Amino acid sequence: MLAKRIQPMAFQARRLYVELMFQVMGRALQAVSEVDETVQQEAIALPEGFLFEMMVMPNGSNLIVEHTGNGRFHYHGSTAPRPVDLSIQFKHIAHAFMVLSFQEKTSVAFANDRMLVDGDISYAIRMTRVLNRLEAFILPKLIAKRAVKEYPANLHLPEKLISAARIYLKVATNFVETVRA
Amino acid sequence: MTNKYYEFFCPVKVIAGKAALEHIPYELTGMAAKRPMIVTDKGVRAAGLLDPVISACEESGLEIVSIYDDVPPDSSTGVVRDIAGIYRAEKCDSIIAVGGGSAIDTAKAVNILVSEGGDDIAAYSGAGVLKHPLKPFFVVPTTAGTGSEVTAVAVIADTEKHVKLPFTSSFLLPNAAIIDPRMTLTLPPHITAATGMDAMTHAIEAFTCMAKNPLSDAYATAAIKKISTSLLSVMENPKDADGRLELAQASTMAGIAFSNSMVGLVHALGHATGAICQLPHGLCMSLYLPYVLEYNIESIREPLGELLLYLDGPDVYAATPAARRAEASISTIRRMRDALYKHCQLPRTLKETGKVVEAQLDQIAELALDDGAIMFNPKEVTREDAREVLRRAWA
Questions:
Q1: In sequence order, what are the beta bridge partners of B126?
Q2: Of these four, A13, B52, B216, B243, which has the most CB atoms within 10 Å of its CB?
Q3: Which of B124, B299, B370 to probe by mutation at the A interface, max A CB count within 10 Å?
């Protein structure tokens, strides 16, 4: 009986968590593209104006970022200014939650058919590398190891801490600016 | 609670063995199809491989309404549009693809257009775009390697935009795959070797990459056993119909395995090498397989060691200490490649192909990193890792 009452609240909490994580990730993608040269090198191969979306099917939470050129991303929130070029779609919010709460690695989620790619696969692979790089920076190593296939051996603590601090600062600033606007 | 999860799907009816082609009329009429079109290429026709298909149908009073025999090695949107036009003009109601990967992929794409309507195949590109079953579609493979008869994918080149269009849908799967030993009996030695190693790579990557699952494992190991047993004996005796059938079945089984568990770095490097150096796919698979297995070895030690049983038989497996079985599996594959090189000069290194220059290795590495298959490789592949594997495969 109690479980039945709690279940809707748990579902609501899960939905809010996924929504919040998408907001953080979108802003963090923008931030990491301003901070990290490796991410810039990955992103620079994307066409200028390239719109990337991550979403929960069928019409759930999403994040949209645009490659504005020179390897920089701009976070658009949840509304795309035009049709997106690449969409990575979780089949269900439960799958998005597993990935975003680091219970399932992104690569494992792909292997387990939890997600679909609508668009150019090579760009999806590139964006996954960017997401992995971002997670390696902003998550504690123990958690990051659960999120990415292999934690980068050449990412040492000082670089990680400095980059993470800069990314979090930029994310926080962006949140504040959004609230003010 | 377990974290494991997998999906497995293969609704293709496999019709395999002696006189399998003669089942085509019955299977077609069972789907109310009376006016089939054959899609094939000039090589298949010149080899006389259409004759048994046509006579099998005619003997049962089923007329082949149209034959398109001009599918190029890399099919394009224009070819697909032309074939769909002929299909409509001739009022066909079903398609029989007879050939290798290109003819089969082209027929899949034609089936989309003639079933869904329109002339622009690019409109159906991507995953999950198709929502309805397509026209009756049968596949008769004439090589034993690609496994395209059981994969839900087709790739067609858009020659105007210079891109390759992928199509992914379970509706692309044929209703039946007809595996008849007559179709591969006249395959030249180097194609037998390369396609056999293609199927071997499909099975080994299916068994060792990230999306492996119990059902794909069963198909993969059975395919490896058949190829290990039959490939070299067929190379010795190309007219061995039983051996040919074993290889053809193995190819289909490996196709079922990898289409449900995906492939890894061997394919990523192979796709990139094929695109840059125009090397045949099967040759690339054979070439890269041991080098990639060596690179992945610490991530796949257990499954790769298990494969020794299917690669080299129970006696060798039992005599090899568990800790050495992964290395022994790679050695067996290397011995097989050496034997194939002896038979038909199937290259074992990039240098032996004579078509790759060392300066292209970086370009191959770069392209391989963006290949979809790399996602399912058990190890995270960096630019430097890919370069290192290529350097080892060079000579």
A1: B167
A2: B216
A3: B370
